[in-house]
TrEMBL record:
Homodimer. It comes from Paracoccus spongiarum. Belongs to the class-II aminoacyl-tRNA synthetase family. ProS type 2 subfamily. Its EC number is 6.1.1.15. SUPFAM superfamilies: Class II aaRS ABD-related, Class II aaRS and biotin synthetases. It catalyses: tRNA(Pro) + L-proline + ATP = L-prolyl-tRNA(Pro) + AMP + diphosphate. The keyword Nucleotide-binding applies. The lineage of its organism: Bacteria, Pseudomonadati, Pseudomonadota, Alphaproteobacteria, Rhodobacterales. It is an enzyme of class 6 (ligase). The keyword Aminoacyl-tRNA synthetase applies. This is Proline--tRNA ligase.
Length: 452
């Protein structure tokens, strides 16, 4: 993309309404625009990151064998009357009446609807296990929407639902999700720690939240510091292997890590004092096993191996896709702006032309731009007629992890500069070498794509 033709409405001043750094930087970097409390337009660069995150989620769900679909945002109230949640959900549910005076609601989650789909089409244990998911906008009429996309009213969620004949099978699905979530967050450059949590309005007493540690997090968390040493990495995993998935769950959940809802001071006190930590965290996902809470009242049953109908065991699993943008920025920024991890960056590399209009500088930039694109990379070329200082400040603000700086002085000896946004370090090299280096940096990121 050429910056002169892009739509990147950066703000010069800090917006007053933003209380936390991710909200401030998303507004300043021209990623979002608030339309009303807790409801945002996603401007092109914000939308680009949102799609990168969605893509990672889709790929990791595909890898785990989960099946994508799409359910609507508006749902009939009658489904929620069946589960009893129409009244229970309270004021967070946005209720709408259509022209025929039928009650609808803007879905805050989809347990009822997916259970309805299941009961209409699945009748035998032979069709199990089944895991369906979608990535769709949700609405929760939060009393205090705040912190930008972190606590929105309309927000994008990946929500998945699994159906199983037995509790054991449902727990394997739970473990599989835990593994796929660990992989997803790591690809986004995040450490998200699974912590024992509370089921809240979704229900079930077996649930983990995934938390990214950050001072601005809304959750209070308590954990054993050893847990922060764990990484999933690129180890091979067979998602059908029950013991292997169980072993990952045990590895990542056996140390103390809980949100304040389930915190147990006596258990916590048993951890050696120098490892006890209390901190703030951002909840970027949650997985639940809730047994037959929805299948029983809604009649989602299958004929079991012995011929009798039994309600299915279910779980659900959510990732806060739009919240993740805020969480990633909270975890990765400095006083100049955002520092995108390579896995989610809106553009792979920025090209800064120090002397726009100079024939040889322009043509060197054009060649680098074309060569990067030919290699499957997505560069942002700052081809505006602006001062170098303004171009650098803009690049630092929007946070592309790598920058190639091209100026007449360097070009005289066939050199450009490759700069890391994270370390600030620069290295001089030929334009060809800079392209090859950027390609090598992104090879592992681009190579992680799984067939969706
Ligand atoms: N049905 C289950 C799992 S599919 C469910 O709704 N789970 S949830 O309530 O925990 O939401 C899943 C994720 O959505 C949360 O972990 C959080 O990351 C994100 N989320 C929840 N509320 C908001 C909100 N108001 N703004 C942004 N993201 C949110």
């Amino acid at each position: 993309m050429r910056l002169s033709r892009y739509f990147l409405p950066v703000l010069k001043e800090d917006p007053k309404e933003a209380q936390i750094v991710s909200h401030r930087l998303m507004l300043r970097a021209g990623m979002i625009k608030q339309q009303t409390a807790g409801i945002y337009s996603w401007l092109p660069m914000g939308f680009k990151v949102l799609r990168r995150i969605e893509q990672i989620v889709h790929e990791e769900q595909a890898r785990a064998g989960h099946i994508p679909m799409l359910m609507p945002t508006l749902q009939p109230a009658d489904l929620w009357r069946e589960s009893g949640r129409y009244d229970d959900y309270g004021e967070e549910m946005l209720r709408v009446t259509d022209r025929h005076k039928r009650d609808l609601l803007y879905g805050p989650t989809n347990e009822e609807m997916i259970t309805d789909i299941f009961r209409a089409h699945v009748g035998s244990y032979k069709d199990l296990p089944l895991t369906l998911y979608h990535i769709q906008w949700k609405f929760r009429d939060e009393i205090r929407p705040r912190f930008g996309v972190m606590r929105g009213r309309e927000f994008l969620m990946k929500d998945g639902y699994n159906f199983n004949l037995t509790k054991e099978a449902a727990l394997h699905a739970y473990n599989r999700h835990l593994v796929s979530y660990l992989r997803s967050y790591e690809r986004m450059g995040l450490q998200a720690i699974p912590m024992r949590a509370d089921g809240g309005p979704i229900g079930g007493d077996y649930t983990h939240e995934f938390l990214v540690l950050a001072e601005t997090g809304e959750s209070e968390v308590f954990y054993d510091s050893q847990i922060t040493d764990l990484t999933f990495g690129d180890r091979a995993i067979d998602y059908d292997d029950v013991a292997q998935c169980q072993a990952v769950l045990e590895e990542f959940t056996s140390r103390y890590a809980r949100t304040d809802e389930t915190h147990d001071a006596a258990l916590f006190a048993q951890i050696p004092e120098d490892r006890r930590r209390s901190a703030r965290g951002i909840e970027v996902g949650q997985i639940f096993y809730f047994g037959t809470k929805y299948s029983e009242p809604m009649g989602a049953t299958v004929v079991g191996p012995d011929g009798a109908r039994v309600p299915v065991h279910m779980g659900s699993h959510g990732i806060g896709v739009s919240r993740l943008l805020g969480a990633i920025i909270e975890a990765s920024h400095d006083d100049k702006g955002i520092i995108w991890p390579e896995g989610v960056t809106p553009f792979h590399v920025g090209i800064v032309n120090l002397k726009q209009g100079d024939v040889s500088t322009d043509s060197a930039c054009e060649a680098i731009y074309a060569e990067l694109r030919a290699r499957g990379l997505d560069p942002l070329y700052d081809d505006r007629d602006e001062r170098a200082g303004a171009k650098f400040a803009g690049m630092d603000l929007i946070g592309l992890p790598w920058r190639i700086t091209v100026g007449p002085r360097g070009l005289a000896s066939n050199k450009v500069e490759l700069t890391s946004r994270r370390s600030g370090e620069s290295e001089e090299m030929s334009p060809q070498e800079a392209v090859a280096r950027v390609q090598a940096i992104y090879a592992p990121v681009l190579g992680q794509a799984a067939p969706a």
